[in-house]
């Protein structure tokens, strides 16, 4: 075991003197302290060495040698910790990974928004329904989704449930990815359900046949089939609740450095990335690979300051900029950032999140996103990098393995009138399995053309 069971209070908690946005207001601070003490005694969910390995993979992304596929739920839910739901999400990511690797001929680094994505930053502190106003739902790690006064009170015990839900999820993910299910020779098995008959499912089937042929050929040439048996898969989530993240921050006994052992990679969101606030301070202390979401108001000067704070050694793989501008802004806003960051000599990974800048409310009241806007933002991202000669390093998407109706469009088209049929997200609309596959094929084409 490489990670010390003790946290380094002084080093891991320097954020406590700074303003921290989007933190729950717990009614009983003593109860919170007791929970933090328990969390500090729990074993790590990931090992520091695994975080280092992901940093090395992200270095390849930053240098233009690999592509990041990061995806999963907008908000995981405690009652979603089931074998079926976890397998479906994983299956979707594995299928997307196979499409991107084979069709774009690029190594794909696979990172789930999984095993820890239980906390949500919100635009408003309250929500009103039929004249009743209550605190907004902030994710299962904070309060309940039910619209009742009791359920919306932040409860620190939920932080422990988050830890246990993350542990169970990660355990299953590790079993699936190393126990044979993710074996590349199973490419057809990942396509054995409702998605098989969709246009993207059929296209996938054709690609899976080609992969089979390629594997048979390599086998005949003497390649070792064992090599395709397991898949490297990493966990990530937004480091939003600093009490939780710092309770899971430990000193690595190999190096004496701090790692947030709640996930391999964590990111800081658009609403908490203020340079002089607590979240950036926290991120600056840990050695994990770090993502920063960059929305349309980000200036190049800010981007350079993130590099100064979070990647002072200019270490490729340490810092990923996850750009979420919106389809109508990406082509205007991104070039200045990429140009100035590149000119500074830093090697960051550039990744597109084409979801968060493209949300709107349908007439039915459902929060949704158009598949075409998602695609257009990705296209804009690729165009900017092509024009500047830089590397479009990956995609970060909200998706689910289930057949939900939350985003409109896609090859197996979902219309605004269909949204109510299976609208299951706890927060933002996700691509369903077939839309996710559509996106993977289209991104692979863009990557190849690049
Ligand atoms: O997932 C991201 C945010 O939590 C979400 O977009 C905020 O949504 P809200 O505007 O409904 O609060
Ligand atoms: C809240 C999120 O995104 P952003 O910070 O970019 O709005 C998210 O990715 O869940």
UniProtKB/TrEMBL annotation:
Residues 1-24 are annotated as: Disordered. Residues 1-13 have a biased composition (Polar residues). InterPro entries: Aldolase_TIM, DAHP_synth_2. One of its GO terms (molecular function) is 3-deoxy-7-phosphoheptulonate synthase activity. Pathway: Metabolic intermediate biosynthesis; chorismate biosynthesis; chorismate from D-erythrose 4-phosphate and phosphoenolpyruvate: step 1/7. It catalyses: D-erythrose 4-phosphate + phosphoenolpyruvate + H2O = 7-phospho-2-dehydro-3-deoxy-D-arabino-heptonate + phosphate. NCBIfam families: DAHP_synth_II (TIGR01358). Belongs to the class-II DAHP synthase family. This is Phospho-2-dehydro-3-deoxyheptonate aldolase.
């Amino acid at each position: 075991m490489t990670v010390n069971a003790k946290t380094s209070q002084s080093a891991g908690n320097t954020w406590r003197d700074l303003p921290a946005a989007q933190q729950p207001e717990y009614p009983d601070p003593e109860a919170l302290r007791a929970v933090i003490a328990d969390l500090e005694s729990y074993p790590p969910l990931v090992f520091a060495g695994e975080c280092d390995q992901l940093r090395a993979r992200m270095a390849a992304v930053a240098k233009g040698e690999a592509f990041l596929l990061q995806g999963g739920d907008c908000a995981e839910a405690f009652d979603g910790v089931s074998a079926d739901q976890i397998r479906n999400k994983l299956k979707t990511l594995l299928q997307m990974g196979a499409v991107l690797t084979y069709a774009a001929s690029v190594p794909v680094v696979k990172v789930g928004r999984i095993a820890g994505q239980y906390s949500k930053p919100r635009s408003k502190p309250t929500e009103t329904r039929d004249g009743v106003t209550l605190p907004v739902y902030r994710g299962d790690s904070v309060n309940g989704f039910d619209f009742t006064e009791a359920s919306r009170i932040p409860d620190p015990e939920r932080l422990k449930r988050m830890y246990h839900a993350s542990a169970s999820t990660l355990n299953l993910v590790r079993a699936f990815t190393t126990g044979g299910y993710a074996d590349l020779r199973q490419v057809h098995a990942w396509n054995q359900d409702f998605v098989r008959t969709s246009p993207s499912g059929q296209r996938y089937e054709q690609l899976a046949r080609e992969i089979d042929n390629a594997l048979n050929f390599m086998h005949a040439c003497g390649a070792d089939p064992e090599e395709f048996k397991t898949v490297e898969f990493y966990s990530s989530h937004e480091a939003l609740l600093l009490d939780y993240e710092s309770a899971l921050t430990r000193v690595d006994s190999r190096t004496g450095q701090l790692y947030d052992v709640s996930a391999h990679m964590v990111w800081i969101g658009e609403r908490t990335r203020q340079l002089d606030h607590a979240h950036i301070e926290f991120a600056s202390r840990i050695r994990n690979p770090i993502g920063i979401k960059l929305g349309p108001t980000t200036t190049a000067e800010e981007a350079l300051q993130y590099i100064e704070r979070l990647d002072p050694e200019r270490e490729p793989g340490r810092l990923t900029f996850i750009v979420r501008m919106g389809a109508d802004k990406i082509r205007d806003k991104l070039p200045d950032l990429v140009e100035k960051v590149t000119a500074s000599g830093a090697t960051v990974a550039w990744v597109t999140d084409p979801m968060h800048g493209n949300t709107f409310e349908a007439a039915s009241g459902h929060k949704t996103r158009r598949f075409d806007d998602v695609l257009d933002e990705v296209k804009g991202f690729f165009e900017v990098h092509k024009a500047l000669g830089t590397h479009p390093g990956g995609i970060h998407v909200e998706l689910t393995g289930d057949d939900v109706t939350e985003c409109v469009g896609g090859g197996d088209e979902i219309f605004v009138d269909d949204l109510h049929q299976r609208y299951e997200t706890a927060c933002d609309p996700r691509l369903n399995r077939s839309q996710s596959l559509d996106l993977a094929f289209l991104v692979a084409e863009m990557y190849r053309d690049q």
